[in-house]
Design brief:
Strand order of the largest sheet: 1-2
Structural class: alpha+beta
Distance between the termini: 38 Å
Order of helices and strands: EEHEE
Number of helices: 1
Largest sheet: 2 strands, antiparallel
Helix content: 10-25%
Shape: globular
């Protein structure tokens, strides 16, 4: 697999501090990338800055 993850973004090239690869080989987006993307995908991302709770299907109150 290529180190260039820009194919995942429609906007611009993804910077090195916007993702990392897990020990299992998955691409994990950081909070910085998710904020740059500008919306919540409602998939309960590990670093989700929007607070979506998939178990109840809504956003957590801060």
């Amino acid at each position: 697999m290529s180190d260039d993850m820009s194919g995942f973004s429609k906007k611009s090239k993804i910077e090195k501090d916007e993702y990392y690869t897990s020990p299992d080989g998955y691409i994990v987006f950081t909070e910085k990338y998710l904020l740059k993307r500008g919306y919540c995908c409602k998939n309960s991302c590990k670093h989700c800055p929007y607070g979506f709770d998939r178990t109840v299907g809504r956003f957590k109150k801060h």
